[in-house]
Specification:
Layout lengths: L2 E5 L5 E6 H7 L3 E9 L4 E7 L10 E2 L2 E3 L7 H13 L5 E12 L5 E12 L11 E8 H10 L6 H16 L3
Length: about 170
Amino acid sequence: MDYVILVDEKDNPVGNEEKLEAHRQGKLHRAFSIYVFNKHGQLMLQKRHSAKYHSGGLWTNTCCSHPRPGESLSEAAHRRLKDEMGFDCELKEEFSFVYNVKLDKGLTEHEYLHIFIGRFDGEPILNPEEAEGWKWMDFKELCQDMKKNTQAYTKWFQLTIDRLAQHVESHPR
C-alpha cells in the first residue's frame, strides 16, 4: 500500500494518508512532476498506461508521482524516473505551486506540486505497468496541440504548461 505525505498550504507535513484515499477525499499532499528535455529543446512525453487508477491513456509530462513518508523529493524523483521511464538524469527543482482539480473515477488531485527539469538525449525503457508510449515533442507544438486537443492530456500537465512555458522562455537551452 502506497502512502502520500499530507501537507498544509506552505508544504509543511501534517500527516500521511493512503494514496488512493487521499485522492478520494481530495486531501492536499506533496507531489512532483518531472519534465525532461533533449538537446533540441524537445520535451519527452509519456502516455499513461490505460489501466492507471486515473487519467489512463492520456499524454503527460515525462514522469510524476509522490514522495513516500520519510523520502526526500529528490530521492523520490530519481526513484520514479528510473521506475517509470528506465533512465535517470540530473534533475533540478525549478518551482512549485498548489492546484486542485477533479479527475475521472471520482478522484481529486489536490497537490503541492514541485516541478523538476532535467536533460536526457537517449531513449527511455518504459515500465509497461506505468506507460504505454512516449515521444519527443517540440515545446511550441505541444502548447498549440494542448489547446486544440485538451482531452488528450492530463489535467495537471495542462495546468503546468503555462508556468513551464514562462520558465522555458526565461531559460533558453
